[in-house]
Design brief:
It is a single chain. The protein is mainly α and 131 residues long. Helices cover 47% and strands 5% of the residues. It has helices spanning 3-32, 37-56, 79-90, and strands at residues 109-111, 118-120. β1 and β2 (118-120) form a beta hairpin. α1 (3-32) runs antiparallel to α2. The longest helix has 30 residues, at 3-32. The radius of gyration is 38 Å and the shape is rod-shaped.
Length: 131
């Protein structure tokens, strides 16, 4: 049986236990409506004994939705980082060709002759006055 099937079975067991508890609550409420206080308290005490007896005999064992032995795996960091890391190995980014504009460059920037690289210079370049 798969994990999903086991979870569905456990949910049904939990629902059955819940129905039993709701029935017991209804029975206790009925006992509380009795006019004779002594009979009411005796009735509630009997209901509590009747309700706790199956738990002591383990007729209604504790049930969880997921089995305790379910492996949660190994934490490998935030999901976004793992996805990005995986995508990085698949996608190979290639730098696109960048052409620099000498008319809009700052005077302290020195452009290469082919206009693809730049470096900072301490001396301002003589550039034409362009808007």
């Amino acid at each position: 049986a798969g994990i999903l099937t086991e979870m569905e079975i456990n949910v049904k067991k939990i629902e059955e236990k819940s129905a039993i508890v709701h029935q017991e609550i209804s029975d206790i409420k009925l006992k509380m409506q009795e006019k004779d206080l002594v009979l009411c308290l005796i009735g509630i005490k009997e209901e509590i004994k009747r309700f706790t007896k199956p738990q002591e005999e383990d007729i209604l064992p504790e049930v969880t939705v997921v089995a305790g032995e379910l492996s949660l795996g190994v934490y490998k960091g935030p999901l976004q980082y793992r996805v990005w890391k995986e995508m990085r190995s698949i996608i190979n980014p290639v730098p696109s060709l960048v052409m620099l504009d000498p008319n809009t460059a700052h005077p302290n920037l020195i452009l290469s002759e082919d206009l693809t690289s730049v470096k900072y210079g301490d001396i301002e370049q003589q550039l034409p006055d362009n808007p």
